[in-house]
Amino acid sequence: MNSKDLQQRLKNFAIRLVPLCEVLPAKRISKIIEDQLLRSGFSAAANYRAACNAQSKKAFNAKLSIALEEIDEASFWLEMIAGLELVKHEKLSLILMEANELTRILGASRRTVARNLKIDN
What we know:
single chain, de novo design (two linked rop proteins), about 0% strand
C-alpha cells in the first residue's frame, strides 16, 4: 500500500464516521462520544496527509505519530459505542475492524520511520 492509498483509506474512514454518528441515540453520552470520535477520525486523516507533505523525515515522523494517536483514539471511541451498546454490533464491526487495521498500519509505519531515524519509540 502506498501513501496515496493510505491517505484515501483514512479519508474514507473519517467519512464513514458521519453516518455512524448520525444513528447514535439522543443521549448526553452519545454527544460526547460523537464529538470525540469525529475529531479523532478526521484528525487522523488530516495529520497523515500533512505527514505525506512534510518537509523533513523528523516532521514526517511527528505528524505520523499524531495520526497514529488519533486513529487509536477513534478506535477507543468505537469500542465505547460497542461497550455501551449505543449501536448494534453489526453496524460497528466493519468500521471497528478498519480502525484497528489502520492503527496497526500507522504503528508499523511509525516504528519503521523511528528505526530509520534511530528514534526511541
